[in-house]
Design brief:
The structure holds two protein chains of two kinds. Chain A has a domain of about 200 residues: MetI-like fold. Helix content of chain A is about 75%, strand content about 0%. By secondary structure, chain A is mainly alpha-helical. The radius of gyration of chain A is 23 Å and the shape is globular. Chain B is mainly alpha-helical. Chain B has a domain of about 80 residues. Classes of the chains: A mainly alpha, B mainly alpha. Chains A and B meet through helix 1, helix 2 and helix 12 of A and helix 2 and helix 3 of B.
């Protein structure tokens, strides 16, 4: 017979109530909308699963989904290794520690739409500092308002600039928590820097890295503001990621039914990938 | 006189017509139960009986699993299944529901409506998950 203090549950209740109102109720409404059609005026007509069929088969959705996966894949591929490298090269003692930490935290403190506008002005081909430098000094043909490739490079670089520091800070926290004895033992054994990283630092960073990858996956998969402000989804549709397309359908065209069906598919994908990530990364701990 | 007698002959047919519902033309039709009509037309959440039943199903499944885990199998319900995952009852419910969503979506995307086949596939998937995973 286990004796536990069950009082703790009462402290969780306010959070549960809050989540119920800001997540569960809207979510249930989305499910209701996804099987109906409305022309406004709070009148709904049954549609069944037709919207799901339509969305899943539409080229527009498949293209946006492909772009979204490409974007998230690139982001993770760059930010995670880069974050680890930066965290490894940061000082762990001395005067430079607070300086580095503040510098790292700065990009994350800037609101998302401000980041978008900053990078927009920064990269405009004629008047932006970077755009002018690339075009007129280096002679590289770069125009993120006209060329899909330039636009893609810009949104990826912007996201790397904005969010790599999250990975850095989390990894740094993991690194700082490693006791000196580990390094001394490694030194006595004559371990190479690679083995120190592989067998001491990486295992100790595993938990925080799991969180970092999960957060970066979810955030980049649901990204909206920055690319919307920077490119508006253009040129053409080349940077229209899933959430930008979703907002276009829901608020631009006011097609609530298809938009609701699309958000549920979107949600299912996020949920599955997060669950798989989490399960794979915590699998070894359970054994 | 013969004509009058003939009209008498038609009188019962009028009564039959009344019975058959001709007399109720223009009257409000009494509505039966429908799964797909709006439940509360003035409410913004746009509930229908079908979607309500879906959520009642999900929440009662969660509640049932919660009661089972909390009281019946308090100690040691975890086990390692065929996928190599350590799962509790709640995990298995989650895997069942998430898997069902994907079975339905895949069917809708690749084949289309009606969705009876994915329904049976999902039930089979659920049985498999609770039995083996």
């Amino acid at each position: 017979m286990r004796t536990e203090n069950q009082k703790a549950w009462f402290f969780v209740l306010p959070v549960l109530a809050l989540v119920a109102f800001n997540a569960l109720v809207p979510m249930m409404t989305v499910v209701n909308y996804s099987v109906q059609e409305t022309f406004g005026n709070n009148q709904f007509f049954w549609e069944g699963l037709g919207w799901f069929e339509q969305i899943l088969r539409s080229d527009r959705f498949q293209a946006a989904l492909g772009r979204q996966f490409l974007f998230t894949f690139l982001i993770l591929l760059i930010e995670v290794p880069l974050g680890i490298i930066v965290a490894l090269s940061m000082p762990r003692k001395g005067l430079w520690v607070p300086v580095c930490l503040v510098l790292m935290a700065l990009p994350m403190l800037i609101p998302w739409n401000v980041v978008g506008s900053m990078w927009n002005i920064f990269t405009l081909p004629k008047i932006g500092l970077m755009g002018y430098f690339l075009n007129d000094v280096l002679g590289i043909n770069y125009d993120m308002t006209q060329q899909p490739l330039s636009a893609w490079i810009t949104i990826v670089v912007m996201d790397v600039w904005h969010w790599t520091s999250l990975v850095v800070l989390l990894c740094y926290a993991g690194l700082v928590s490693i006791p000196d004895a580990y390094y001394q033992a490694a030194k006595i054994d004559g371990a190479s820097p690679w083995s120190v990283f592989r067998y001491i630092q990486l295992p100790k960073m595993k938990t925080v890295l799991t969180i970092a990858v999960l957060l970066r996956f979810m955030d980049s998969f649901n990204i909206y503001t920055e690319p919307f402000v920077l490119t508006g989804g253009g040129p053409g549709n080349s940077t229209t990621l899933l959430s930008i397309d979703l907002v276009k359908i829901a608020l631009g065209q006011f097609d609530l039914g298809p938009a609701a069906a699309m958000s549920l598919i979107y949600f299912a994908i996020t949920l599955l990938v997060s669950w798989v990530f989490y399960t794979l990364m915590t699998k070894d701990d359970a054994q | 006189m013969r004509k009058l007698l003939l009209s008498l002959f038609f009188l019962p047919s009028m009564a039959v017509a009344q019975q058959a519902g001709w007399g109720s033309v223009g009257q409000q039709e009494e509505k039966g139960f429908s799964w797909t009509d709006p439940l509360w037309p003035d409410f913004w959440m746009a509930w229908t009986s079908a979607t309500l039943a879906l959520f009642v199903g999900i929440f009662s499944a969660i509640a049932l699993i919660g009661v089972l885990e909390g009281f019946k199998y308090r100690d040691g319900i975890e086990r390692r299944g065929v996928l190599g995952l350590t799962t509790t009852l709640g995990d298995r419910l989650f895997i069942t529901l998430l898997g069902s969503v994907y079975i339905f979506l895949a069917w809708l995307g690749l084949v289309g409506q009606p969705v009876w086949t994915p329904l049976f596939l999902s039930i089979g998937w659920g049985v498999f998950v609770f039995w083996k995973v």
